[in-house]
Design brief:
By secondary structure, this protein is α+β, with helices and mostly antiparallel strands. It has four domains: about 1-30; about 30-45 and about 300-365, conserved putative lor/sdh protein from methanococcus maripaludis s2 fold; about 50-55 and about 215-300, Beta Barrel (Elongation Factor Tu (Ef-tu), domain 3), CATH 2.40.30; about 65-215, no CATH class. It has four helices and 20 strands. The protein has helices spanning about 1-30, 95-130, 135-165, 225-230, and strands at about 30-40, 40-55, 60-65, 70-75, 80, 85-95, 175-180, 185-190, 195, 210-215, 220-225, 235-240, 245-265, 265-275, 290-305, 310-315, 320-325, 330-340, 345-350, 360-365. Strands 2-11-14-13-12-15 form a six-stranded antiparallel beta barrel. A four-stranded antiparallel beta sheet has the order 3-10-8-5, with no helix packed on it. The longest helix is centred in the N-terminal third of the chain and has 33 residues, at about 95-130.
Length: about 375
């Protein structure tokens, strides 16, 4: 019985040894190299560039005050529609003391002149009624009287404008009321009630009270590299996509190419613009959205193409390109080809192959069994 057990143990050891040997032998064998089989076919090749940019309104304006002051009331907020001439905010005027003092002095002087002109006019009129002075002399005094009245009214109005921001004769045109200059959507109101604002002048751009834009007329604004701008012409079709709206795309036409380059991260780029078609999309497009524009720079239609992965380049002559073409015996032979336009996946073959030729593709490695 013991002898049988020994034989069984020796047999198991032998099986394990042989199995281990076979396993190691199989895994030590070199991989069998196989290649994908590709075919030269007729197709279209498009060279496309993708331009990054953003969506902006074509007409976006900053509404600024006509006088210095403090925001007394805000009638609108960001996101609301506003019509041209509609009031957005109201100011409380802070008059310039030098201007106020000059205006008050002008009023006092006008009152003195008017008082003297009134006295002269009343005296002259009494004499004229008695036929003691000529018509010409009377007309001169009357004219001086009327001029003094106009000067008094003008001085008073100027004082009211400087002091209150509005005159009693033109309340509807008050400079204390900040009105929208276009019809559109209010994108931003960067001020609050109580903030001081100043009007634009030669030394300062002035305080922006509101930013208003026509959101029905949007454009794509981006930059393209100088190596590709030479292929662009105004009117070229573009496809606009917006990162924040994955299911949105819009056809557009290139309408502007900047004549001057700008440096961006060490590269010269040119600004381009294209109008978006926003009607009936069902999407709310916001100003400042990041966007991409696909532009077809070149097209080759119904040409012989192969995948770029089938190409092989000569180390000694970079201008020479080769593929491995299958011959009648089913073996691959190296042939030189002349290539053309590429889209990054497929490439045009101008010579060296014919439609239907089989070519060797990338290598596939399978473990031998």
């Amino acid at each position: 019985m013991k002898r049988i057990v020994k034989y069984i143990i020796f047999a198991l050891i032998g099986v394990i040894f042989i199995g281990t040997f076979v396993f190691l032998f199989k895994n030590s064998r070199p991989d069998k190299i196989q290649y994908q089989e590709l075919e030269a076919v007729l197709g279209d090749v498009h060279r496309i560039t993708v331009v990054t940019g953003k969506i902006t309104p074509r007409n976006e304006v900053n509404v600024k005050p006509q006088i210095n002051g403090i925001i007394a009331e805000l009638y609108k907020e960001a996101g609301q529609m506003v019509k041209e001439g509609e009031v957005i905010a109201k100011l409380r005027v802070i008059p310039d003391m030098n201007s106020l003092s000059s205006a008050q002095s002008r009023v006092r002087l006008a009152e003195i002149n008017l008082k003297q002109a009134t006295t002269n006019y009343e005296r002259e009129k009494a004499l004229f009624d008695k036929k003691l002075v000529s018509d010409e002399e009377y007309d001169q005094v009357l004219q001086a009287y009327n001029q003094a009245k106009e000067e008094k009214a003008a001085a008073q109005e100027s004082l009211e404008v400087i002091r209150d921001g509005v005159s009693s004769s033109n309340k509807t045109g008050s400079s204390t009321l900040i009105r929208s200059t276009i019809t559109g959507l209010i994108l931003d109101i960067p001020v609050k009630v109580g903030n001081s604002v100043i009007q634009a002048n030669t030394m300062n751009d002035g305080t922006t009270v509101a930013t208003v834009a026509n959101m029905s007329d949007l454009i794509f604004d981006g930059n393209i590299d100088e190596t590709e701008v030479g292929s662009l012409v105004e009117g070229m079709p573009m496809k606009i996509s917006i990162g924040a709206l994955p299911d949105y795309s819009s056809e557009a036409a290139l309408e502007y190419i900047s004549p001057k380059a700008v440096e961006n991260n060490g590269a010269n780029q040119f600004e381009i613009k294209a109008a978006l078609k926003t009607g009936g999309t069902g999407h709310t497009i916001r100003s400042g959205y990041s966007a991409n524009a696909e532009i077809v720079l070149e097209t080759a239609e119904q040409v012989l193409v192969v995948p770029e992965s089938a190409l092989e380049f000569d180390d000694d002559d970079e201008e020479k390109t080769y593929v491995y073409r299958q011959n009648a015996a089913g073996e691959y032979e190296r042939v030189e080809v002349k290539t053309g336009l590429s889209d990054g996946v497929n490439i045009e073959v101008k010579s060296g192959l014919q439609a239907g030729d089989k070519v060797r593709g990338p290598r596939i490695i399978n473990n031998a069994k």
